[in-house]
UniProtKB/TrEMBL annotation:
Provenance organism: Stentor coeruleus
Molecular function as annotated in GO: zinc ion binding
Pfam families recorded: FYVE (PF01363)
FYVE-type domain boundaries: 112-172
SMART domains hit by this protein: FYVE
UniProt-listed InterPro entries: FYVE-type_Zinc_Finger, PH-like_dom_sf, Znf_FYVE, Znf_FYVE-rel, Znf_FYVE_PHD, Znf_RING/FYVE/PHD
Entry protein name: FYVE-type domain-containing protein
Source species, domain of life: Eukaryota
Length: 172
């Protein structure tokens, strides 16, 4: 199983979560489901989704508050409209689990292993010049152009991971 397929299949969370409604300035209890990269909610369990979002790098956290157990984020919905959601969780464990799952869902989909050349130096991959995936952007690069490691907490990595030279410049 490829890395991006594993990530997409690994996240399956379902639970009642309090969703903030700006019109009424109140939280309303909704059934949320995060399945791979699809985050959706409805009024009750197992009903058709009222609204859904494709979770990717367009999802930007605007608030993470473990004290009040709230996560707020903005994203583009399926029709390209900017949406803002603020969620309140019932426990620290639930907050932590959903935060990590949303971060993992934001990880980039990796370029296919059928790529023949490093995107940084344009040299062919060989038995000695191996392919490596940048964990920040998902591109395929050679070892010479992926020597740096960064702790990518926004993507839920717990230790420093391989990043390409282009991402190193952006992250430094």
């Amino acid at each position: 199983m490829k890395h991006d397929e594993f990530i997409r299949q690994a996240n399956l969370l379902e639970n009642y979560v309090e969703k903030y409604k700006a019109k009424t300035s109140q939280y309303v209890r909704k059934w949320f489901k995060l399945e791979g990269n699809i985050l959706s909610y409805s009024l009750r369990e197992r009903l058709d989704a009222r609204s859904s979002a494709f979770v990717d790098s367009n999802l930007v956290f605007t608030e993470k508050d473990p004290n009040s157990l709230t996560l707020a984020f903005t994203f583009l919905n399926q029709s390209g409209k900017r949406k803002n959601w603020k969620l309140k969780f019932a426990s620290v464990a639930e907050y932590t689990e959903w935060n990590k799952a949303l971060c993992i869902s934001r990880r980039p989909i990796w370029d296919p292993e059928s790529v023949l050349k490093c995107v940084e130096c344009d040299r062919n991959f060989t038995f000695f010049r191996r392919q490596h995936h940048c964990r920040n952007c998902g591109r395929v690069v050679c070892g010479d152009h992926s020597e740096n490691r960064f702790l990518l907490e926004d993507l839920a990595y717990d230790e420093p991971v391989r990043v390409c030279d282009t991402c190193t410049k952006k992250l430094s």
